[in-house]
């Protein structure tokens, strides 16, 4: 079906020239009563009007289309591309130009949305970072001022304040170390030293290192029944150790008394290993699940800060897994518990490249 929106300047010129020439030719035939004069008039007028209309239409449309493309194009055209555009742009129909402009507008809209989200994320990040830094710094300032005001001469008070000062310094050091770790992982500066190791052995080491903390809350750590068979993975062992420590430590912080933390591992069909750390703790509300891997994001500000930590643990875990070319996910439900899962590559033979 005829669609005027799909016409290019050449077609517009031809249609207009044909219409004008045909009308003049018919008029000549009726007034002069000579068909060959009408035909000659039609042909001459068609050629002249076609050339004139095409010339001015192309100049007008090309000029305006070129201005449009100057706005929507992000790359500067070379002389060869300029010459090519002079031939190609006039050939484009208004429908094609309209589609390209709409596509450009949609891209810009998406970019604006992303920028808004990034701006909001940046503001939240700076606010959270400021709070995380101010808390120990103000505490240090208070302890030092009190000591300088005379408390240092009281041995018992001085010792207590110095111990608290040391704890806050450790908190600052841990915060800076975690920020440095994330920065290196994001930039790719943190190299991975991959090796083959049994994942069950590593998780047992982590369980042992946190056994005292688990015993304080009467939380039992174990490997899920059926997942005891050793599975060898190919990854950076120390980075995965750090990940396990963060996940298990989180499960202990927010776990219930007499609760359970369970490790499980399953080989998948695509030569990866699915690894999960599950607990039956308080769980995470659904509205928080999409954001818990963000830096400093806390589902319960009061309880989270009371428990300590930099607020960067889960973000570090996610970056560690992504640095391995894998993905991390979470499942949770309030009062049911939480499961963090990720995949790792299975054992790599020495003969493989």
Structure, described:
The structure is a single chain. The longest helix is centred in the middle third of the chain and has 55 residues, at 94-148. The protein folds into three domains: 4-92, no CATH class; 120-187, Signal transduction histidine kinase, dimerisation/phosphotransfer (DHp) domain (Helix Hairpins), CATH 1.10.287.130; 195-346, Heat Shock Protein 90 (2-Layer Sandwich). The radius of gyration is 36 Å and the shape is elongated. The model has no long low-confidence stretch (mean pLDDT 78). With 353 residues, the chain is of the alpha+beta class. It contains ten helices and seven strands. Helix 4 (94-148) runs antiparallel to helix 5 and helix 5 (155-187) runs parallel beside helix 10 (313-323). The chain has helices spanning 9-32, 35-72, 79-88, 94-148, 155-187, 199-209, 211-216, 237-253, 301-307, 313-323, and strands at 194-198, 220-223, 232-236, 260-267, 272-279, 328-333, 337-346. Strands 1, 2, 3, 4, 5, 6 and 7 form a seven-stranded mixed sheet that branches. 60% of the residues lie in helices and 13% in strands.
């Amino acid at each position: 079906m005829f669609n005027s929106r799909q016409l290019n300047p050449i077609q517009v010129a031809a249609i207009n020239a044909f219409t004008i020439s045909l009308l003049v030719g018919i008029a000549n035939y009726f007034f002069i009563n000579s068909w060959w004069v009408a035909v000659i008039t039609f042909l001459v007028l068609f050629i002249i009007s076609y050339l004139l209309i095409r010339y001015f239409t192309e100049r007008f449309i090309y000029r305006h289309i070129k201005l449009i493309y100057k706005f929507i194009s992000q790359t500067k055209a070379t002389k060869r591309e300029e010459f090519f555009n002079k031939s190609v742009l006039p050939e484009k129909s208004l429908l094609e130009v309209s589609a390209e402009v709409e596509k450009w507008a949609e891209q810009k809209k998406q970019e604006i949305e992303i920028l808004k989200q990034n701006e909001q994320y940046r503001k939240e990040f700076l606010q959270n970072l400021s709070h995380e830094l101010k808390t120990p710094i103000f505490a240090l300032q208070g302890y030092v001022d009190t000591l300088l005001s005379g408390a240092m001469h009281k041995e018992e008070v001085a010792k207590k304040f110095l111990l608290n000062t040391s704890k806050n310094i450790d908190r600052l050091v841990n915060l800076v170390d975690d920020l440095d770790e994330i920065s290196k992982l994001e930039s790719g500066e943190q190299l991975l030293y991959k090796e083959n190791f049994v994942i069950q052995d590593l998780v047992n080491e982590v369980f042992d290192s946190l056994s005292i903390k688990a015993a304080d809350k009467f939380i039992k750590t174990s490997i899920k029944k059926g997942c005891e068979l050793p599975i060898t993975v190919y990854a950076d062992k120390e980075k995965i150790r750090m990940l396990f420590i963060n996940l298990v430590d989180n499960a202990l912080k927010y776990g219930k008394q007499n609760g359970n933390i369970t490790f499980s591992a399953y080989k998948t069909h695509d030569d990866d290993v699915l690894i999960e750390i599950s607990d039956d703790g308080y769980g995470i509300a659904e509205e928080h699940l999409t954001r818990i891997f963000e830096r400093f994001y806390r589902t319960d500000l009061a309880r989270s800060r009371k428990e300590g930590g930099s607020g960067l643990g889960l973000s570090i875990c996610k970056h560690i897994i992504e640095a391995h070319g894998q993905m991390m996910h979470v499942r949770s439900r309030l009062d049911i518990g939480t499961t963090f899962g990720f995949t790792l590559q299975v054992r790599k033979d020495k003969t493989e490249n």
